[in-house]
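Reopening this one. Same input as before:
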Amino acid sequence: MGGFFAAKLSLRLGKLKNFELPRTSMMIVHKAVLQRSPYFQARLADHWHNAREENSGLLPLRLPPGCPVAAATVVIRYLYTDMEEKCSPRSAACYARSATAGSLRLGQASVAIGAAQLSQMLLLEDLAEELSRLAQSLLVSSDEAAALQDRFVALPEPLTKVCQAVQLSPAVELRTEELAPGPGISVANQQSVCLAAWHRAVVSFVMAMARTLGLSLVLALASAESLHDCIESKCRGCGGEQCQLCREDHNTVSACVSSCMDTLCHGCGGEQCQLCREDAKTVESCCSQQGLESVTSQIDMCKAHPPTPTTPCAGLYGAESLQCAWEEDVKTCMETTCRGCGGEQCQLCREDASRIDSCCQDHWHSVDPPQICKDAKDKLESNQDPCDGLYGSQGLQCAWEQDAKSCVEAACKGCGGEQCQLCRQDFSRIANCCDDHYHSVDPPKMCKDAKEEAVTSCFDSKCHGCGGEQCQLCREDARSECCTGAMRTPSCEASNKMPVLP
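Same output, byte for byte:
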């Protein structure tokens, strides 16, 4: 899908009037509408309570892929209708309010399907089930069935079967006037008409499934025969033991199995072909040739593959499902953010902790964050400026220490193993870096210790082997060489105060 666009829709409290909505993949609706949804109450109430949109009362509502905006109108009408009236789900009033049967026509199955998916998102289970049933009664042609399967990522399971039935029996027709509101037709009668239409669709579906079953049996028999004929044609002209070897040859059988699968999957395209060839029924039809089990079992094409989950979160429920959805939303957000990058730039973009953390915040759920969000937050906290929150002399002292550490790292760049450890602990190098990044405050401890060690080492090297008064004179003479730089140490100050002997 393309980028998301927000269309602001401000709804007044009271009765909902007819309105037109822009064709977008995200809507902005009033909080008062979504407050009626169990989804809002169960999962997003706390988050939206603290959201910035709280001041305006407008909140985002993302539409499922393929969902037309007209479908959102159906659901919002349902949410915005006064709920004080207590009625059973099968009563005429509830049916008219929730499914809005009189407002949908043949050929508008996509609206009913989109409304059902949106209702499912908002945890309106009864409404979703009712709209799915209504969508089945609005489906009338094979072209519409194909269009629905292309438009939506996934259809409700019963509707998927009906689509298949309509494709196999395109003669099924429903009369438009049966669903028209028309004068003198009550809502209860409309409901009966819809149910009657649904019954006709079910009958057609059963007949189509019977045709499908017969066709599958014919294809299975034909595939087995074609596999046998294929092997015989490739081994034609052989004799004796040579024929047996030819019929059991791995390459021969493999080529014939592939040809069999091509026949069964004729007309497919792209990923659909791969799924067809890996389908267990296809594998069984093309690889179950009697007497060739030892050969076909060694062919990769004859090894059934487990079905691929429709989504990474398939089979998860509750908190685990929300956590998985959060992680998938973050990954999608990162792909969108890093779109257009190239080479190493893409890797750096996808590993950027600040981007990941931002996506995690934008797709918040009321569960424990996924690991990708935790890792990004930990990385950001570890990379936080150590001098953050320090001011005045403390801030300068911290900056001095960090500058000195960076200086030492730069000086030791390119080292290896134990050499790096010795380089980073060299007090002379540390003292020089501290002098190079001097600040007019008390030096940090690492600088004091390194400078004192460097001065003491300098005095010892200059005055090695001296004794008594000779050592004092030697240290005084060496002070100009050992006590260099802006920093001063106790050793330098002591030598500076020594009395000059006559």
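So the earlier flakiness isn't reproducible anymore. For the record, DSSP finds 24 helices and three strands in the chain.
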